[in-house]
Amino acid sequence: MQDRLSIAKNWLPRYTGMSIDSFGDYVLLTNFRNYVDMFAEQFSCDIQGEGRPMQAATNPEGLTIINFGIGSPNAATIMDLLSARDPKGVLFLGKCGGLKQSSEIGHFILPIAAIRGEGTSDDYFPPQVPALPSFKLHKFVSQKIADRGLDYRTGVVYTTNRRLWEHDAEFLARLHRMTCIAIDMETATLFMVGHYNEIARGALLLVSDVPTTPDGVKTEESDTRVTVEWAAVHLQIGIEAMTEVGDKGEKIKHFQY
């Protein structure tokens, strides 16, 4: 295995336990095993990858969901490995911390861009290249949210490799100066590595905490409450969007420069 594609074709099944032919044209990515469980229960499909780094399932309509883990290195890994399948679209269903009063717990965020504070994406593009989603994919997802009568926010997300930063006053001040709407650990990496691999990509983030307020840091109790109240609708929006985008959405094209 000397070339990049042959490595990806070998490693995607190795990481997920699923053959390349079993992956659908459209993919949902998540950090949460329970999203994969809910997906498999809804469509009565098998979960692959038990005992492996990632778990995956594909429903009868050809939509695949993958739990790739947490953090930007894992995000880069799955977007690289998916080049073996060359999907038509990938949507990340993740959680984020809200950084503004307008981003309350339970709100959805469709990032218009992400700041590359994680470092992983520097291995793919120079720092001057912005981390952007595929507009036509986000446009379709936004319509599915509106069809349900739900609100969502747009703005710039800051992506960091640091998981424990809530105590750091200097870091919090820097976040304030950047005027980001939310913070997470994967979005910028997914956008950049998707761009690198010419994969249409997007992110629908669920605000799970407001870490800039004194009592807003995520706890086991608060995260469980968000999951109970919002995880099912979060997943369902992703399922509906990625099931229908191929038939009803605008054609997504890739441009090389």
Walkthrough of the structure:
With 257 residues, this protein is α/β, with parallel strands linked by helices. The protein has one domain: Rossmann fold. Helices cover 37% and strands 21% of the residues. It is built from seven helices and eight strands, in the order αβαββαββαβαβαβα. It has helices at residues 4-16, 33-43, 72-81, 135-147, 169-178, 187-196, 220-248, and strands spanning 26-30, 55-58, 63-67, 89-98, 108-117, 152-160, 182-184, 201-209. The chain has a five-stranded mixed barrel with strand order 4-7-6-5-8. α3 packs parallel to α6 and α4 (135-147) packs across α7. The two termini are 28 Å apart. The mean pLDDT is 90.
Helix coverage percent: 25-40%
Judging by the overall fold, what is the CATH architecture?
3-Layer(aba) Sandwich
Structural class assignment: alpha/beta
Which CATH top level class fits?
A: Alpha Beta
Q: What is the CATH third-level topology name?
A: Rossmann fold
- For the largest sheet, list the strands in their spatial order: 4-7-6-5-8
**Main pleated-sheet profile:** 5 strands, mixed, barrel
Percent range for β-strand residues: 15-25%
Task: Tell me, briefly, the overall form.
Answer: globular
Q: How do the SSEs run, as a string of H and E?
A: HEHEEHEEHEHEHEH
Task: Please give the count of helices.
Answer: 7
Low-confidence blocks of residues: none
| Number of individual domains | 1
Oligomer: single chain
Total count of strands: 8
User: Can you tell me the CATH superfamily?
Assistant: Nucleoside phosphorylase domain
Terminal Cα span: 28 Å
Q: What radius of gyration results from the CA coordinates?
A: 17 Å
Report the average pLDDT across residues.
90
